[in-house]
Input
Amino acid sequence: MCDIIMSVSMSQRTANFALPVSLGFIPISGTWERIEGLEDQEVAWEFTPEPTRSPTELDPWSVRKEFLELKRDQRANLEQFLKSTGAFCWINDYRPLSEEEIWVIQGILQKELLTPRAADPARSLDPWSWSFADTIRKRISAYELNAVIRLQDGELVGLMQESTTLDAILCTIVVDRVRKFRFKICARSECGKIYELTSRHRRKYCSFACAHLVAVRSSRTRLKRSSSKESKTSPRLFDRAKIVQRTR
Output
């Protein structure tokens, strides 16, 4: 639950007011099947919807965090994620989604979270020359945030609900942008986690653990360099001493 300033048009007047908003994600349930050797795609994932009587509601921010932290070499984790979040996007209605396309979407969403309007598609005179990434960027730029205002316990509450993983993640990005949240990617290359900037203090790492690990590595590197320099200079001084003794 979060507060958002909304603009509502009533007749010819526009009123702005703060409204608590609840974002829900009830995924379309179904099964995922891994397909190999599909045309030029090494691995693809096909989704088959299977309605359930008791759908499970997921936290969209947790889903976003889990998806953006997936690694390319963690196929088992990707499979588990797909199975737990249901339909991924509108493409599932037409064809399987290749694994490479999933990583393309992940990269675009990461940039969109870090840099607003990063998903704007490049202008092209020929729409047939657009790549898959351009299609996703166009979809993101056309995304609209829809809220239904209802009475809940005697108070007005805005309700937003999505049914696919991509739309749920996009909704969290839009809401965080409205709240002027800022994000940054961890400077430790092995980590790559996206974290929220909660203060003006310039943080380079997502956690103390990452910062400490980089500091320890840097310290070890400096010690190795200094020791290597000493090992190179010591023999030269020893040889010079020998030459002086012989001349005497």
